[in-house]
Fold each of these.
Amino acid sequence: MTEQVMAAIDGSQFSEGVCDYAAWASLALEAPLTFLHVVDNHPQTAEADLSGNIGLGSREHLLEELSHLDEQRAKVAQERGRLMLQAARDRAIEDGVAEPATRQRNGTLVETLEELADETRLLVMGKRGETAHQDSEHLGSNLERVVRSLHRPILMVPEAFQRPERVMIAFDGSTTTRKGVEMLARSPLFKGIPCHVLIVGADTGDHRSQLDWALATLREAGHEAEGAIRAGEVEETLRAYKEEHAINLVVMGAYGHSRIRHLLVGSTTTSVLRRASIPVLLLR
């Protein structure tokens, strides 16, 4: 089965960024692009149950009316999703993608993505969904659930597209991040892009050896590569390095074996993602 770039869109402010980053990834990877919209017929915000307030004589009639309204809402949601998918497809074609596909499903986003995991090479998602709180440091609950459950690379993107020119990997020597370095080295997604490797921790011989391996792996693949070992709090250190070197895409493992292991199982990664103004590629 062909693995493709899967782009999850809804009516959120991040959908345009999802479209553009997904188109960029599809072209760079020479992989098919599919836009996915999931209609959740079980909204998180519960509506009032009016059935208990219905008088005996009119109860059956009003329940039928409520059922009819639910059907109408579902039809409107389906049509709205279809229009969003068509707009996303048109935008991707403008970006240069030849034949982007569209898929609309009913259910929950997490369950749908799990069903499509074998077809997914890279998932592109916005930082927050349509129903999430709009505060700049709020992280959508769908994104957190997807990252915890989906064992595929996930590219979380901001609202506006900026072509990546410098990429940084948060490296801790774990199996996941070593695979991440090897992925960076060989992936056409990062062809010609300078790579930075950052280890957060003490400048020990072991860390120096790990950094040397990572830089050698990247340079052997033809990348311009540099790196550093810095002590400090993980999130603050990553953010400072990103700003110093004008990094505009971060790669990190969802799990590791050092303090970065707290990413996605503690507060560190959630905090990194919440405050991220650039794309973050999460690896499993």
Note: The two ends are 21 Å apart (CA to CA).
Amino acid sequence: MVTILHIETATKNCSVSVADKGELLAIQELNEGNYSHAEKLHPFIQQVMQEAKLSFNDIDAVAVSKGPGSYTGLRIGVSAAKGLCFAFDKPLISIETLQSLAYKLSIEEGVIIPMLDARRMEVYAAVYNSKHEQVRDIKAEVIDENSFQEYLSKGKVYFLGDGAEKCKEVITHENAVFIDGEFPSAKEMVKLSFDKYKKNDIEDVAYFEPFYLKDFVVTPEKKR
């Protein structure tokens, strides 16, 4: 057995799964439209472990979504993952959030552009081909009518994630296809984490930090 626990908290979807050799054993997730990770994450971890009839000593590794995404959500998920790794002496595997989101789609041609909301008209986005290989780096970018024209002019472009919803009225090219209601999930992390485990592609637990992409900015409180 190669049993891996997965934690995904980069967006409003709080998601936890456990898998054996890339096969899903149990999953718990909740997307209520707000950030409930602080309350839900640890109960979800306990629930998937109980459902799979596993103890933490049975786990071979812990995988965590590394970002980009919500600053607070990422901090909660990474802190929980690192805590488990330290407590039970397990390796830590990090999964790029946009890559696992791209795995929600299976296409024969064109490209997949997963997007996460970064407020206003800005998104975190990357581009993947039909084999889920990254063909453009992750960027924080402001979306306008000219965004992704180099891909739209060549064929179908599939947009998904909570950042894609606000782009519908701006990106109106006939090759643009918008997939609604998709969020990063611990389900799609399963294959990616197993592949990394087999390659011994692990993180230094003490020094690992989430991939924020942008610095966290505190908005000053308005004077009354």
Note: Residues 106-179 form a domain with the Nucleotidyltransferase; domain 5 fold (CATH 3.30.420.40).
Amino acid sequence: MTNQTLSISARRLAFNDRNDGDLVRAVPVETPVAIEVCGIGYAVMMATPSDLRDYAAGFALAEGLVKHVRDLSDIIVHETEGGWIIRLTLPAEGTAIALERARRRVSESSCGLCGLENIQQVLRPLPPIRGLITTSREAIADALNALQHHQTLGRSTGGTHAAAFCRPDGSILCVREDVGRHNALDKLIGALALSDIPASGGFLLLSARCSYELVEKAVRAGCPMLVTISAPTSLAVERAEQAGLTLVALARPDSALIVCDVHRNIS
């Protein structure tokens, strides 16, 4: 397995007891991961080099390059000097989408969201949530309490995000970790798709603030409910309401905030 941590030397600076000292600490590996689509450079992401096949599948689904993971003809993960390369082979429709986006990116400014056309793309309608689950406050609390025990990389470094897929009873079925919260969720979505586990049958739990991108990834994966440990942004709330996604935020050991639950997934 590729190293996911790196040991560094540091000096502890104590604020109260003056118990300073030299120590060795593990930090998560962050490295460039280049994504190529049919031989064309599509994106370079900064990620933890683990579960990259899952990441590739989840990224392709989240980007709308494929509708089903079975549409991916091939996924090749290759380590190169200074980072990693993921090579995707897509059907004709996905290839055309990727090539057009790559062409536009050349003329765009670095923000990647400039111009009316891009704003329209960001705010494009989301597919409505079709799946329904029945869960409870006890299940959410159980998942929160169990998450830390599934965060192997997080426990050793204190510097990564986790994305978990939970059954309606709160038991955790699958977890993926990464230095980036978006990457962690892409890895999880890809892992579910590659294992033929429908995201509609449970809920997502993320150790991150709830930005609109995470809401959109959850909706496009067909998951009916998203729980995050931090606060949502205004656009995240708006997009969740539009799609009918049950959104729970500020999930803590003693409470959580139900932001929207139009389908009454939480009993």
Note: The chain has eight helices and twelve strands.
